[in-house]
Every structure is written in C-alpha cells, then in structure tokens.
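User: Run a structure prediction on this.
Assistant: Running it now.
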Amino acid sequence: MPTNTRAALAHLRRADPVMAGVIARVGPYRLTPSRAGTHYDALVRSIVFQQLSGKAAGTIHRRFLELYPGKRAKAELVLASAEEALRGAGLSRQKIGYLRDLSARVADRSLPLAHLGRLPDDAIIEHLVQVKGIGRWTVQMFLMFRLGRPDVLPELDLGIQNAIQRAYGLKKRPTPKDVLRIGAPWRPYASVASWYLWRSLENGDGQLG
C-alpha cells in the first residue's frame, strides 16, 4: 500500500468513527487515476457519460470514437464532424453542442489543457466550467479520476449524499452544505472518503447497528 494511502486511511479512521466503519466493511482502497489519452479525451468522455448508465454511455462513447482515425477524437476533427454522424453515434443535440464548445475552445487555444496538472483544484474548476456542459461536478470527477487529486469532496453528487444518509443514519438526504460539514474532518483526504462512500452503496453497506 502506498505511503500516502496509508496516511489517508489512518487519518480517516482517526478523524471519523463512522468512516472508519465504512472503510472496514468496504475493504482495500482501489482507486487508480486513468492516465490513458489526453486531458481533452477525458473531458470528452465525461460529457458523453453525463446522465447515462455506464453501459449505455460506454456504447455511445465507443461509436463516437469509431468515427475518427485510430479511434482518436481530436478537437479539429470533432468540429468538422457532421451532426448526422454524431447523432448516429447516439449523441443528443445538447451533448453535441457541449462537445463542439469544448472542441472549439481547445482548437483555438482559448482553453489550454496541458498545464492543468500544475494548477490548484479551485483554479482548475474555474478554468473548465467556462465550457458549456462542464459544471462543478464534472470537474470534480476530472480532478479525482484523471488527475488523482486527494482532497475532492463532490458535495453535489447524489451517490455521496445517499451514502452519507445511510452510513450516518440521517432521516433525510443531506444537502450539499451538510456534505461539506460532515466531510470537513476527512480533509485533506476527501477523495479517499468519497471513493469509500460510493463503494459502500455498491456493497449494500451503510446500515449501522
């Protein structure tokens, strides 16, 4: 187990007894950031996957990539794609608009991406939410699953809210403000706590007592 993971788990167990119980039931931490492709590829994928089940989104994403040489969707190629072809891959008109907005900003270099790994989390959020269809939640997923940032707490995520409600025995689903308050002790390892909360839902976990 990497030293930073050991430090994160030790901190979470010490800071929050409920989280310690979730960690014990879920088991080993297994989040590995995806380094494949470019930051642009990762943002395209996040737009395609929005509000869809994993299986359906995966099929549409595969069909979308198959439109391009080597299955690599570059910004200039996406901008040149006919709407009929994109619709044929399963993309909605709204998502086509989002992909074109992202691609236009990348192509004209008004949205540079190569330097993102050197910026703090808040600056990355501010940088990327300029794009239509990319909101705070999408950037938080990018921070966690692409850049591997350790202290991201996606307070708007329904899965996180539901997992907190179950694990902490709350009568109502917590608001985003409640999530930030409950999650304050997890910092600076909120990403690790968030991963455990998502896994606890998959395990049917969270029922205490």
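Residues 205-209 have pLDDT under 50 and may be disordered.
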